[in-house]
Amino acid sequence: MTLDLRSVDRSEAESFVRLVYQAFGSVPDDDELARATERFEPDFAIGVFDQGRVVATAGAYPLEMTLPAGPGRDLPTMAVPGVTAVGVAPTHRRRGLLTRIMDHQLADLRDRGYPVAALLASESIIYGRFGYGWAQSYQSLLIESDRAAFRPDVPADTGRMRLLEPDEAGKLLPLVHDRARHLRPGELNRNARWWKNHLKDPEKERGGGEARMYAAHESASGEADGWVSYRYGKQDWPEGIPRHQVEVDDLVAAGPAAQAALWRFVLDLDLVEEVKAPNRPLDEPLRWMLADPRRLRTTEVADHLWLRILDVPAALAARGYRADERLVIEVTSADPSARGRFVLETGPESGSCRPAKGGENTQLVVGLADLGAMYLGGVSPSTLAAAGRVNEVAPGVLAAADRVFASPVTPFCTLHF
Ligand SMILES: CC(C)(COP(=O)(O)OP(=O)(O)OC[C@H]1O[C@@H](n2cnc3c(N)ncnc32)[C@H](O)[C@@H]1OP(=O)(O)O)[C@@H](O)C(=O)NCCC(=O)NCCS
Prior knowledge:
The chain is globular. It has helices at 13-23, 30-39, 97-111, 166-180, 192-200, 256-267, 286-289, 312-318, 368-374, 381-386, 397-405; strands spanning 3-7, 46-50, 53-66, 77-88, 116-120, 132-134, 137-144, 160-164, 213-218, 224-232, 244-253, 272-280, 296-303, 305-309, 325-332, 340-346, 351-355, 364-367, 390-392. 25% of the residues lie in helices and 31% in strands.
């Protein structure tokens, strides 16, 4: 039996989408099928076919990711493929089809000149073997609204909140997001098609809750600088007492004043007992704003974006650095096109990276996936060394590597793709 791996064209988009849904254990309804087909990217879609039927899939979205910067610099950005729609039919699992698809896709993305690929993993066991590293985490928060008074030192809001209907949100939110995404490493752009799809807020994706609501924050000068989107959960009035839950979808701000105002707004919503915020960065400041911080609980911390370095010198030269250092790093990998010994020189302007020469001795040995994990500053080389994953060959070089890879802003992306 031959299983052919090839690109998937637009006329095959529906069967591609159906296979992805099936791999994840569901059947798309007509609306889901139409929306997923609209998102289909023929330039990146590949499939494995068994007697003409698609049995394994993968795709990608062309995205732009924000990277760490040197001191006083704007954060640079880089084009990254956001790998998506990875699925294998239940009839064809554990026969190496994902491995075949990954090998093909990684080579293809490298040939197209991408230094790095990104994805969100359904399970954290899957992608490390292909050289992807856990580059960002999220935390889920649960806050008791009625015990969520702010400390007196949180500055009072000098701007104002404004409720938005979805069509107004569709005009304003992309502008605010485009500003905010340049302030955090790891953040990804959202294109017009993504917004259109998101704002539809189909009932099937509401988890039994109400429709999504939107509220924007405007600074004192009238400029929109943040928004929160949220939904009330199932209405709950035990013995006549309102105990509703609100779930925060996005809470995005272009500065700390807007961020505080958005949290104040959502924690002051009436009839609400608890606010859930399932997708927040690890450096979320809300805990430090609360007078009674134990009333905010972290209910989950887990992996979010995974990065695969495809071209080590290009990837390391693309981000900025806050330390002047010279490191000789050996990157280990089963992939001969990615491994090697490299010299990384960093300074306030930028970094440069090239293959190491004979006399330049290795100081640090890092697996390719762990280089992906360190890339945005989401985990330090020292932490990885303590876990036995990074090897300090030259004594003392770990501290220098920590300074080189650190980011003052914790990496995070708000996009699910
Ligand atoms: C995850 C999935 C794509 C794997 O496809 P597959 O064709 O079975 O994977 P492969 O046969 O190439 O497996 C390669 C290796 O990964 C391991 N592996 C793959 N998926 C795994 C999983 N979910 N849990 C544990 N191990 C897994 C295999 O055991 C194999 O290990 P080995 O090389 O030591 O033998 C498939 O199970 C699937 O479609 N799952 C549901 C949808 C999903 O989660 N997709 C990923 C979206 S991010």
